[in-house]
């Protein structure tokens, strides 16, 4: 059976306030062509269909168009909700849509109920595990712990129980939206940290022939059977070096996997430039970036006059300006930036406690309070942040 694995469409998202709607429409066109040209038997979409829980109307219309075109191909599609999606909104009409061969899996309670497709070698059971927020699904799934690993283990226990009751030789595919240990992250993924731990081991998915992952935006294979497709478009400059692709996966009669990366259309390349303004404007080696979306990090000791306008004269698609002036190591502003670099919100909060108490950091009970407060804010704000703050 031939599968096309994709994820993280983030319909409705912009790039530094530049609309990506046309690029997302081009990707859907490319997806449909790929399904047709490569004789795909099933399309897998591993979450984050939309960029927000309440997507803009244009994104909803594009999604509707994508569903109609996929259904028109007569090729089944299995799709799960991600942490950016509203499961209830995405799942509206799922029962009716299923009649057209579009299988939306947004209900955690149904993770052990597969979509069963068949080929010449027999059945393949597709299990959709939507994004599982531990605080919301722990009790429903009967998880033994409060973190991501515990809820995914509980979901996979349901998958294995259902699979064990099926005829011998039934092959299995799991779609999941999670941060799996070993995956390379970017700045584009929303933090899903719970209790300070966001990642889960790849071993959670042991025993499954193929696991189609979503959430991380870089295409990568954690094992031969556990892979991220990545996002089809770049959504931050941290993805400048990504090769945007989908996985074309062949699952043979014995459950063996072979996979090939298929490139996605690139609307405009990304370039991250760093240096003093005059050097960036004069360097002939940067000519190849003049039509790229540019993030310029200026290292001038003093802020230059009108830096954005001057950059735009050479790089008309500059969309991001970062000021990081060269500073002496003893400069307090330089040392402060270095202390913060690479530290998450929990670590910064704990450092602040230690700072105001003369070096004595939080004890275990205080650390638990801080963690609970940060998790509460993250959960409460997930559906209310404006787009540019995400």
TrEMBL record:
Residues 1-218 form the Calcineurin-like phosphoesterase domain. InterPro entries: Calcineurin-like_PHP, DNA_Repair-Maintenance_Comp, Metallo-depent_PP-like, Mre11_N, SbcD, SbcD_C. Keywords: DNA recombination, DNA replication, Endonuclease, Exonuclease, Hydrolase, Nuclease. GO terms for molecular function: exonuclease activity. Residues 267-355 form the Nuclease SbcCD subunit D C-terminal domain. NCBIfam families: sbcd. Belongs to the SbcD family. SbcCD cleaves DNA hairpin structures. These structures can inhibit DNA replication and are intermediates in certain DNA recombination reactions. The complex acts as a 3'->5' double strand exonuclease that can open hairpins. It also has a 5' single-strand endonuclease activity. Heterodimer of SbcC and SbcD. This is Nuclease SbcCD subunit D. It comes from Streptomyces stramineus. The gene is sbcD.
């Amino acid at each position: 059976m031939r599968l096309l694995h994709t994820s993280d469409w983030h319909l409705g998202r912009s790039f530094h306030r530049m609309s990506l709607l046309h690029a997302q429409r081009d990707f859907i066109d490319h997806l449909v062509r790929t399904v047709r040209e490569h004789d795909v038997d099933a399309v897998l979409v591993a979450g984050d269909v939309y960029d927000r829980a309440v997507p803009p109307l244009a994104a909803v219309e594009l999604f509707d168009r994508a569903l109609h075109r996929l259904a028109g191909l007569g090729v089944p599609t299995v799709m799960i909700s991600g942490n950016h999606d509203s499961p209830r909104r995405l799942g509206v009409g799922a029962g009716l849509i299923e009649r057209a061969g579009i299988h939306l899996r947004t209900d955690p309670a149904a993770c052990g109920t597969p979509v069963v497709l068949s080929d010449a070698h027999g059945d393949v059971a597709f299990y959709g595990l939507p994004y599982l927020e531990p605080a919301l699904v722990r009790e429903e799934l009967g998880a033994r712990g409060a973190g991501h690993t515990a809820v995914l283990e509980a979901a996979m226990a349901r998958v294995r129980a259902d699979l064990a009751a099926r005829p011998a030789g039934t092959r299995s595919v799991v779609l999941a939206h999670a941060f799996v240990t070993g995956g390379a992250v970017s700045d584009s993924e929303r933090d899903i940290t719970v209790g300070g731990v966001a990642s889960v081991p790849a071993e959670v998915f042991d025993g499954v022939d193929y696991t189609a992952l979503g959430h991380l935006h870089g295409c990568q294979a954690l094992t031969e059977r556990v892979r991220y497709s990545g996002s089809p478009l770049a959504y931050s400059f941290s993805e400048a070096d990504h090769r945007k692709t989908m996985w074309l996966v062949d699952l043979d009669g014995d459950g063996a996997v072979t996979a090939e990366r298929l490139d996605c259309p690139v609307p405009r390349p990304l370039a991250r430039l760093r240096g003093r303004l005059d050097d960036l404007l004069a360097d002939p080696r940067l000519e190849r970036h003049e039509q790229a979306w540019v993030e310029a990090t200026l290292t001038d000791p003093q802020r230059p006059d009108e830096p954005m306008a001057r950059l735009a004269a050479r790089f008309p698609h500059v969309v991001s300006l970062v000021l990081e002036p060269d500073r002496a190591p003893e400069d307090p502003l330089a040392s402060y930036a270095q202390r913060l670099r690479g530290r998450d919100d929990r670590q910064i909060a704990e450092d602040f406690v230690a700072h105001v108490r003369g070096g004595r950091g939080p004890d275990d009970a205080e650390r638990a309070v801080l963690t609970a407060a940060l998790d509460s804010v993250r959960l409460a704000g997930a559906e209310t942040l404006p787009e540019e703050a995400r």
